[in-house]
């Protein structure tokens, strides 16, 4: 990211970490950021019954419960996929759904995934929509900037997938402009270098409360890490190895170092957040039995056949990495409450700044997490009131 507006002589660009009282800066005081990784897409991994639902009302309840438990953020992904892919019954669009949740929550940060290169989605749209949501959410809303790794989703928009690294270059130019619009004191004119966007005397109000909305991207590739180093406050990472906790703990430290160094090289820092699924019951045996019954009822994912050029999950294809059970999380954390806390502590120890948790049965397992695991996390010093 340029440090100043793309307009010559324009203002310095600020973000939420430049303001001590922004929701993001306040949350960053927690030893381990805590998020919930929603499933508005209704992806189903198993026929074992759950209370889960893609509906707005169900997910509002999850976010409000997480907020009451003191969670820092809620995130939801978004996909554009033809019929027959892994959306279950239906899926809600993330930008609209989490944006709407801004009005029914008070403290929790809300990160919507947005495919920023599909469109026509002009920088002015993103800047104005973002500024509006920033004010509704009082600085709690942000974008997970994704560029589209699957060929079919670009094709749905009548385009061909753009080359992997070029996508990040285009997204970079886009956010140079969007961020300039958020911080500008004058009208902005701009003509894209690598992107088709043009602006003439463009102006956006209101100015976001803390420089700009929270910016995030999810990646594992060198180009994506470089992008995160320049543009993101948080980077959603994956285990470069397998989903088994041992494999994740083995492969993550070098990966985290790479990310930290990339940010340092451009004079910034970026917080790493990973998304485990938590499968827990009072005893290890009960937790393992729960995990096993999910596996015994597993549904084969049609989505696995998608032509994707993503780097982030390549470790899943490498037989030398210890894989998990295929429960859906990026890392699988299975065990009694004490064992869950041990595994979260281990992630924190190797340098993970935050976790975004998903659950097999959201309402039931989140309630269990709040009652049985969260007190232990506090006792371990990973969460403070
Ligand atoms: C935690 C996480 C969440 C993601 N959410 C989405 C999403 O909602 N929609 C999407 O199209 N891609 C999503 N992705 C994929 C990324 O946008 C990206 O395409 C992928 O990580 C590959 O990027 P890379 O090749 O730079 O590693 C997600 C990735 C991760 C790790």
Strand-helix topology:
Layout: H1 23-27, E1 33-38, H2 56-68, E2 73-76, H3 94-101, E3 109-115, H4 123-137, E4 141-146, H5 151-156, H6 164-183, E5 188-191, E6 198-202, E7 214-218, H7 222-231, E8 234-237, H8 245-265, E9 271-274, E10 276-280, H9 284-296, E11 331-335, H10 337-349, E12 354-359, H11 362-379
Parallel strand pairs: 1-2, 1-12, 2-3, 3-4, 4-7, 7-8, 8-9, 9-12, 10-11, 10-12
Antiparallel strand pairs: 5-6
The chain binds flavin mononucleotide.
Flavin mononucleotide binds at residues 77-79, 113, 146, 148-149, 218-221, 224, 236, 238, 275, 310-312.
Oligomerization category of the chains in this entry: single chain
Order of helices and strands: HEHEHEHEHHEEEHEHEEHEHEH
Bulk shape: globular
Spatial strand sequence of the major β-sheet: 1-2-3-4-7-8-9-12
| Each distinct ligand | flavin mononucleotide
Number of strands: 12
What is the highest CATH level, the class?
A: Alpha Beta
Largest sheet: 8 strands, parallel, barrel
Q: Give me the CATH architecture, please.
A: Alpha-Beta Barrel
Query: Approximately how much beta-strand content do the residues carry?
Result: 15-25%
How far from one another are the termini?
Answer: 34 Å
- Using the coordinates shown, work out and report the CATH topology: TIM Barrel
**Number of discrete helical segments:** 11
């Amino acid at each position: 990211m340029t440090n100043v507006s793309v307009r010559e002589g324009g203002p310095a660009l600020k973000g939420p970490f430049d303001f001590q009282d922004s929701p993001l800066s306040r949350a960053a005081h927690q030893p381990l950021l805590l998020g919930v990784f929603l499933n508005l897409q209704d992806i189903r991994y198993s026929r074992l019954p759950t209370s889960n639902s893609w509906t707005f009302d169900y997910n509002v309840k999850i976010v409000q419960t997480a907020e009451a438990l003191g969670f820092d953020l809620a995130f939801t992904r978004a996909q554009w996929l033809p019929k027959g892919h892994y959306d279950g019954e239906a899926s809600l669009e993330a930008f609209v759904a989490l944006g709407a949740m801004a009005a029914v929550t008070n403290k929790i940060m809300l990160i919507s995934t947005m495919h920023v290169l599909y469109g026509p989605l002009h920088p002015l749209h993103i800047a104005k929509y973002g500024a509006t949501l920033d004010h509704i959410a009082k600085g709690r809303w942000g974008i997970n900037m994704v560029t589209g790794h699957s060929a079919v989703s670009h094709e749905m928009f009548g385009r061909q997938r753009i080359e992997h690294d070029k996508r990040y270059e285009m997204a970079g130019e886009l956010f140079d402009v969007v961020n300039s619009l958020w911080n500008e004191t004058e009208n902005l004119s701009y003509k894209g270098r690598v992107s088709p966007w043009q602006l003439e005397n463009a102006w956006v109000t209101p100015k976001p409360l803390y420089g700009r909305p929270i910016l995030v991207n999810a990646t594992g590739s060198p180009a994506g890490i470089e992008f995160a180093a320049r543009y993101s406050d948080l980077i959603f990472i994956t285990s470069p190895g397998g989903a088994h906790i041992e494999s994740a703990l083995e492969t993550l430290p070098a990966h985290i170092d790479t990310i930290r160094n990339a940010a340092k090289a451009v004079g910034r820092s970026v917080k790493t957040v990973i998304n485990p699924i938590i499968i827990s019951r009072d005893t290890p045996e009960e937790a393992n039995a729960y995990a096993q019954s999910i596996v015994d009822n597993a549904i084969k994912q049609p989505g696995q056949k998608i032509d994707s050029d993503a780097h982030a999950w390549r470790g899943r294809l490498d037989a030398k990495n210890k894989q998990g059970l295929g429960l859906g999380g990026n890392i699988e954390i299975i065990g009694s409450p004490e064992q869950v806390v041990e595994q979260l502590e281990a992630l924190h120890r190797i340098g993970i700044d935050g976790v975004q948790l998903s659950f097999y049965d959201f309402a039931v397992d989140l309630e269990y997490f709040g009652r049985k695991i969260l007190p232990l996390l506090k006792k371990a010093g990973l969460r403070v009131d």
